[in-house]
Specification:
- The longest helix is centred in the C-terminal third of the chain and has 32 residues.
- Helix 3 runs parallel beside helix 9, helix 4 packs across helix 9 and helix 6 runs antiparallel to helix 8.
- About 80% of the residues lie in helices and about 0% in strands.
- It is built from ten helices and no strands.
- It has one domain.
- The chain has about 240 residues and is mostly helical.
Amino acid sequence: MTRTFQAQLPLWLFIAVLMMAVMAAHGALAHAVTLGDKGYIQEITGPQIIPFMYLGAKHMITGYDHILFLFGVIFFLYGMREIATYVTLIAIGHSTTMILGVWFNFGVNAYIIDAIIGFSVIYKALDNLGAFKAWFAVQPSTKAATLIFGFLHGFGLASKIIEYNISPDGLLTNLIAFNVGVELGQLTALALILLVMQRWRASLAFARQAYRANVIMMGLGFYLMGVQLIGYANA
């Protein structure tokens, strides 16, 4: 394997992941679950910690829009302390609105919230490209934006869970277990992203390819947002 091919490999892996996300968007909404999982959730009662942890982790790993956002957030973060700070902000955001949204039975139209989540991918790509400072001579707080979008991502989770009609028996325990699973899934996705990013950043091609990668990510965010808005218009 040549040195040139080795340098290009992380970008091709990234593009392949994005293309798989695009194909997945044709077949299902973001944050959807299989019919089998939905039926299982509706049938069980009482605290079911392990099953809900599994469902939460599965939900996050297959949540391509959230993974894209996570990818954008850590794209130019190098220190583990800084990465941990931003991942914690995301976790606080979506944990809060997910649990409170379900507990108080407050959801947002699934198409609208998923469109906003698509927009969060666009926003982060533009932020990585330095567009806001170039256009408006102001750099918005990246931490505040990450937390706000974390809240919105949580509403996406809450809206879907409400549709499952989970039994009130053991609801809080199951919601916490589901959230723990989501966080475990997020950490798994983060570990895989960092493995790719570590090798990619070590290559001489990273500086050149970083711009194109964020443009691709922004384009995919527009695509995901468009799919949801079209779905909303046709619903």
